[in-house]
Amino acid sequence: MRVAIVGAGIVGASIARELSRYELEVHLVEKEADVGWGVSKANTGLIHAGYDDDPDRFPRRARLCVEGNRIWHQWVEELDIPHVWSGALVIAKEESEVRILEELLARGMRNGVPELRMLERDEALSMEPNLRRVEAALYAPTVGQISSPQAVIALVENAVDNGVRVHLETEVTGVEVSGERVRGLRTSEGFLEADVVINAAGLNADDVSRMAGIDHFEIRPRKGEYLIFDEDAGPKPSRVLFPTPSGRSKGVVVTTEVQGHLMVGPNARDLPKEEKDDRSTTSSGLREVYERASEIWPLPPLSMVIRTFSGLRPEPTGGDFIIRAEEVWGFVNVAGMRSPGLTAAPAVAREVVKILEGMGVSLREKKVWKGRRRGIHGSEVSEGRVVCKCNLVREPEIREAIRRMKRVGVKTPSVDSVKFRTSATSGTCQGSFCRIEIARILAEEFSTPLWDVTLKGRGSEIGVGDVKVLLR
Amino acid sequence: MGSEMSRSSSDDAYDVVVVGGGPAGLAAASESARLGLKTILLDENSRLGGILPQCIHPGFGLHCLGEDLTGPEFAHRLIEELRESDAEVRVGAHVTSIEMRSDLVKEVVFASPRGVETVRARTVIYAAGARERHRFEAGIAGDRVAGIYTAGEAQALMDLYGVMPGSRVVIVGSGDVGLIMARRFALEGAEVVAVVEMLPYPGGLARNLMILRDFDIPLYLSHRVAEVRGRGRVQRVRVVRVDERLRETGESFWIECDTLLISAGLIPRVKVLRRAGAIMDPATGGPVVNDRLETTLPGVFAAGNSLLINDLVDYAVEQGRTAARGAEEFVRGGGIRTRRWIRVRKGRNVRLAVPHMLGGDRDVWLYARVSKPVEDALVELPEIGLRRRVPVLKPSETLRLKISAVRGNELTLVVR
């Protein structure tokens, strides 16, 4: 049995890893030059507890979030994914918001979220003395953060170790259906025969679904912008801080992200359906994020910001996750994985296994399956030339990252591929000291001229040719 | 490990550990060694010279050597001088912390190809240079795409790695680095379509501003690049007019380009000093120092662009030598013995002044910058009756004054 998964984001990667347990031929198809470069690349990285989602309105979100949180606690260990289990506080700034926290608490209990409790003002302040205004807080100890791009990389590395084949820079252009059955994928790189197609195409999931003649939903991009401060800028909270939610989103979060930087965001701006690749930041959006975060936390001045970015979340029609076997046999949609999609991903992957079982796909477990994977950090690279000075990344780590890039099928050398695997270029200087040196190592390892090395895939080459090219 | 740690206090210690092998660090190490101090220089790169090897334009050494050299030539002179001295050198040594064991003993921790190493020091001269303010710090929103470089990064790409970054260039900032890169791009056949300066006056030295005229490059004063857009690579930037308080006016326009060069100023690299506890001056971004260029950490000195951003390499060299003489005094005297300091106050139109404290017993160089440009300026230090006329003073140029022995509690620098 041949399974093709469209999209190597957190959802596709989780599914690939879970399916790699069984005697199946699994293909992971991705249009970008590396895994995890879509929605998964730019988000808050939160592993939510599961008190946000109303089980009556969004039953899948509610159930899979709580279950996903539990599985992530196990996966970060098995797969050596950078993480921190910090817990979270939802802050009520004034009396009128306390009622909403009580609703969240009740909802969390219904959803089966462990260890949730309300804190009085003083207890909240003893946990986070720098809070600006707090009347009460909801404490969720099971909330954590992971590096979302690193999680995708870890899952794909592990999947590849267990036989999954990855096809990068391969854009799906059609789904071959005949006799009410899926036959395969038409792609920019040719036809890929498949008995089952799992559509985890993120922002483009509606387009891929339509290729199979299934058009019961639409995905709209919702943009969220973020600010990251220099590592020495503070104060930094010990826990993830949420404002009391407004209804539409969880609000602007204040957190110390996995690498130890103060980070604030996201806002939420709905974009027109066509703008699925608009990842630009806006001055007004960034100002909004800064101001909203300032309501609960004293922020360092804007001059201490070292990075701004924005990410897109795939908002589905109806609001709930779409996870189902469609009428065309073999076509499974796993779409609309808006927040808490990252948290839910492992549980979603297990849900997909059940769906395949329900479809009658034979799932025989492999005799040998490797459940563990080791990251680059924490292995044997404490020696060698320091390349990224801000984050102390050494040359052997960079070469190891490149070896791993090639192992998952990366064909185009990109500085971003190294960045997501090592954290190089993501410190105070944002790569102005080391980006070229990393590009030089990439050029060497990929046997390509330096100017052809890219920042983030074809079309983002770091130069136009040798230094005399314009004079010829 | 126990015996290693408890080995006697300072026999194995260096008198001077110089951090950084750019112009200030090279000069500091040569001078320390010449003064008979046991010296080691640690540099993070694989070769010495700091930023000089990529500065292939002339203009180096006019003051301190009386010659007009290129960056690599100037670096060569300093490196030769160091080689002739007894100073030891370690390259590939990236200093990560300075630990104050006592006022007289420090440990300098550095990452090297061998792992993490430590050297003991009586004094440290910190000359780790500066870094460039990057796109995010310059407040430029929009897409994260290829084609956005800091000026120094583009310079390294062209002149160390032999790569042409792009063909249609917009430059943010009219400081010297940006102007020099404008010429560099033009000479290699690129079209420099605009230099965009936020302030109402240009930043660079007069000799560099000539570049704009020579190559017919438009300069937009009182404008800033607010946004960059593109898919994989820069396609256009939005330029906004700002008012005298640098707030955006409604007026804006787009410029098509494939390259955006950020030359929006340098920031002293002082994370290690700050973490060690040195008090910083928000005006310079560097440490607070006395006239030996000693920071508030006893026996830890600063020089070059880590101390304050210099417009001329000559001053960085001078500061390196001053710090070395301070280190000598510290080592021979068991500390800097001055107990009463004369505070240097910033009076009218003075944005920064270094050093911050004077002993009053010797001639020292005072480095200062004005807040606003002035023609036919009168520079005064009323307490000592110093008055000097200067034809033009610009915020981008260092005002350097020699101050002889003084008395009193404070000294005020005033420019009108």
Could you explain the architecture of this structure?
The complex is a heterodimer of chains A (472) and B (416). Chain A is 29% helix and 23% strand. Chain A folds into three domains: 2-40 and 149-218 and 318-358, FAD/NAD(P)-binding domain (3-Layer(bba) Sandwich), CATH 3.50.50; 83-145 and 220-313, D-Amino Acid Oxidase, subunit A, domain 2 (D-Amino Acid Oxidase, Chain A, domain 2, 2-Layer Sandwich); 386-471, Arc Repressor Mutant, subunit A (Orthogonal Bundle). Chain A has helices spanning 10-19, 59-79, 95-111, 121-127, 148-161, 205-211, 283-294, 341-358, 395-407, 415-422, 435-446, and strands spanning 2-6, 25-29, 46-47, 83-84, 88-92, 117-120, 136-140, 144-146, 165-167, 172-178, 181-187, 190-193, 196-199, 219-229, 240-243, 253-256, 262-265, 269-270, 305-316, 322-325, 331-335, 386-388, 393-394, 465-466. Chain A is of the alpha+beta class. By secondary structure, chain B is an alpha/beta fold. In chain B, helix 3 (71-83) links the parallel strand 2 (39-42) and strand 3 (88-90). The relative contact order of chain B is 0.13. The model of chain B is unreliable at 1-10 (pLDDT under 50). Chains A and B meet through helix 7, strand 19, helix 11 and strand 24 of A and strand 8, helix 4, strand 10, strand 14 and helix 7 of B.
**How far is the first residue's CA from the last residue's CA of chain A?**
55 Å
User: Low-confidence runs of chain A (pLDDT<50, min 5 residues)?
Assistant: none
Report the helical percentage of chain B: 10-25%
The whole-number mean of residue pLDDT values of chain B reads 94
CATH class of the largest domain in chain B: Alpha Beta
The total count of strands of chain A amounts to 24
Structural class of chain A: alpha+beta
CATH uppermost class of the largest domain in chain A: Alpha Beta
- Summarize the largest interface: chains and residue counts: A-B, 52 and 52 residues
